[in-house]
Amino acid sequence: MRKLTILGTGFAMATKCFNTCFFLELEDGSLFLTDAGGGNGILRQLEVTGFDYQKCHHMFVTHGHTDHVLGVIWIMRKVADLMNKGKYEGTFHIYCHDVVKEMLLTMTKMTLKKKDFARVGTDIVIHEMKDGQSVEVPTAKLTAFDILSTKAKQFGYCLNFADGMKFTCLGDEPYNEHDRVYAEQADWLLAEAFCQYKDREVFKPYEKNHSTVKEASELAEQLGVKNLVLYHTEDKHLDTRKQEYSAEAGKYYHGNVYVPDDLEVIPL
C-alpha cells in the first residue's frame, strides 16, 4: 500500500512544528522524499518514522528557500556517510531546477567533508529538471513543472502511477493556471494553506504570496480533486488546526480533506 508520511507541516518561521516536507512509501517498498526542512532536524524526523535510507534513492527539491533546501545538505551528508561506511548501495538521485542544483553544489562543496563531497556527482546525482520534463522513478512517471513563483523559482511535480493514480505536489505557493494539466482531476493534491480565511488580517498570507484554507479548498473543488492535503501553515493554532481547517475546507470542497500533524501517516 502506498503511504504518505508528513515530516513537517509548518511555514519557514514555525517553531512549534517542523518545516513542510514529506516522503512517500511506494507499492514496491521504495521511499520518495520531497524537501527536507531547514536544518538537521530532518534527521530526527526521519529517525522517528523509522525511515530506511537504503530504500530511498529518489528525492525532489521544490525550491531554494531556507526551510526547504538546508535540510537537503544534511540528507546528502547522511547518505554520503552511509555510502562511505558500506551501508548504502546504489545511486541517490535528487531532482530539482537549475537554481537549486547550483545551491546544493555550492553549499556541499563548502560544508561537506572531502570524502563526502567526493560522492556528489558520482553516487549522489543532482538532476536538473526543466518545466514539463518527465523521468521514470520507481512505479511512476515524475513530471516537474514551474509554478511561476513571484518570489524564488519553484517547481512542483506530478506522479503518474501505472494503476492510474495521480499525485500532485503544488509546492508552497498559490496555484497557477500554467499547471492545470498536472493538478486537474488529481487523486491527491498537496497544497499550502497558510491560515484560515477569517485570520487573513492577522497572518497576512497574501503579502507572503500564500493562500488561505478557503482559496486552497475552492481550487481543489474547481479542479475536481478527490483528496486534498493542506499544509505549510502558521503554527499558532496547532491544537485546533485539524478541526478548524477541516471545517473551513468543507464549506468549499466536497472531497476528502486531510490536515495532518507532523509525523502523521496517510494511506493513499
Automatic annotation (TrEMBL):
Organism: Selenomonas ruminis
Keywords, sorted A to Z: Endonuclease, Hydrolase, Nuclease
InterPro entries the UniProt entry points to: RibonucZ/Hydroxyglut_hydro
MF GO annotations: 3'-tRNA processing endoribonuclease activity
Protein name listed in UniProt: MBL fold metallo-hydrolase
Nuclease listed as a keyword: yes
